[in-house]
Amino acid sequence: MAKTYKKNNRNVYKIPLYAQFWVWFGLVLGLAILSLLIGFVVISQILGIVQFSLWSLVVILMIWRVYLLTKSVIKAETIGRYITQTSAEKVVTKSLLATMSVNRFQDTPYISVPEVRVFDRRPSHIAVEVEKLAGMYDIDNLTEDINSSFRGKLGDYAVTSAMITTNGLIYKFVLEDVATDKTWRLATLDQMKQPSHVLTLQEGLTVNLADFPHLICWGKSGQGKSTTLISLLVQALMWSKSKVYIIDPKNEFSAMSEFYPADRIAVEVNDVLRMLAHVCDEISERQKIVADGVKIHQKMGLRAYDLGLSPIVIMADEIGSLVASMDNKQKKEFLALVTQIVQKGRSVSCFAIFGTQSPKTDTTLSSDIRSQFATKILLGSANGDIQRMAFDGEVATKGNIERFKGFYVSDGKTIQPMLFHVPDLHSHNLNDLKNIRKAYEIGLGID
Ligand SMILES: Nc1ncnc2c1ncn2[C@@H]1O[C@H](COP(=O)(O)OP(=O)(O)O)[C@@H](O)[C@H]1O
Ligand SMILES: [Mg+2]
After folding, report:
1. Number of folded domains in the chain?
2. Which of 87, 182, 253, 277 has the greatest number of C-beta atoms within 10 Å?
3. Helix intervals (H) in 219-358
């Protein structure tokens, strides 16, 4: 809730005395002590009652204060976090006041100051929420105020994403440690080996597809989309007995056919459709296996993952250009198959990993389909419209972003878009064909 501050005679806005707990507490305590002192001189029954009431009030106020404090500390989880959060809340509030971001009219004696809440979620991030009041400056000014408030040991944290809640009542900021490079830097193929269903995307960010299925990556040419997908391909190939189907409209993976089963790479539209239909058949078969599993184990909600079935992955780079080359009938068929895969795949360990140019130009994938992807990555700079399409209304900070970086949201991990770093495969040539071959052999167990 907003608080009202009053301008004092030095032209500084402060919380007025009557709105401060310690003023009232001091007053009651003073009166209680006074009544005690008077008690030494005068003896009266009424004075006794007054003394008792005042001291009771002192105790009640103290208990109330301790209760509130304990509640806040428990909510913050540790005392250290509580201190970090409350002191950051104070500094941010001060900064909002100092720059008058809270009110355009500087000459009023009273001013409404928004409630500021800070959540210390380090090492992942720090979240800041600022109540939106009428007449408040736009999100960019607030971002500056917040950035300038975090100094000292939190000085490496800066706002990476800012948004306003859909009801328009709260500004939400995510601050990340921008001084630490989170790029997943790899020197050997072994470092890329993950437990089945698990994908590492960057330092400190892994997703388990069994829990959070499907991943989509948008980005214009040269932003590192293929590199990102290849890092996922290599990891998926190394999962024990996994099956990866590759849709390759730009014919970038055809060299893999030297060692890779021909029926798992499709370049031409008709081959793609045939391959997807085959995957849908596999899904149906698996649904039967899972249904039998439910009967045998007498457990509802059982998944292929719980039954130890190895994952199936459909990896598609540049689906936009694939769809662009289809006629209407093929488009319809393609979308029907993709819809089946993303909807039914999750319970039978069949996952889509898609890469395409932009959520705006590729209207191929309806928002219904997009919403099935638990992890979404948007590489490179993008305007608000594109960000809104990618992240279902949640907007990352506008402005330019460095090459090979972007934003991501991931169900169960992020509350709003966060900074994404394209993995570094090129420094040690890990995107070489011979490494992809090696990864495939590791997955087959012929390592
Ligand atoms: N993190 C990175 N740092 C430096 N160069 C990179 C990085 N990621 C990719 N590259 C290089 O940038 C170029 C474009 O990357 P690519 O993944 O093919 O982009 P896209 O598929 O989006 O067009 C490639 O030559 C690739 O080796
Ligand atoms: Mg590419």
Report:
1. 3
2. 253
3. 225-238, 269-297, 319-324, 328-344
